Amino acid sequence: MSPMTAATRVCFQLQVHPELLDEYLARHSPVWPEMLAEIEASGRRNYSLFLGEGGTLIGYYETGDDIAAQAYLAQSKIATRWEAEMARFFVDLDGRPDQAATPLTEVFNLAEQLSAAASDNESSAS
Length: 126
Known about the structure:
Elements: E1 8-15, H1 21-27, H2 33-42, E2 45-51, E3 56-63, H3 66-75, H4 77-86, H5 97-100, E4 102-103, H6 110-125
Antiparallel strand pairs: 1-3, 1-4, 2-3
């Protein structure tokens, strides 16, 4: 990704079974080093998971090409094994957690709006 190319921001939601929260958290402290390496190799950056009340899990990452990142992880034996072990933690999930999570729609981005406002101001000043 060149410095001028904007990253794709991806946010998703999953629901962790409340009775499995402690085990889910333990499995992420730490994540397997080889799985961390696969996430990085896929092109995902700034990847975070946030846990809300009742097991609501929000994930966020950035990537230059989300389709390529998903394809990379889909063929990875390490990611396949990790996702198979993680699947039981989630409520009503049809498929691998890394592929079947519910994507969320971005409705506000500070940097984009500031940039647009600056462009509008420059156009008005001309």
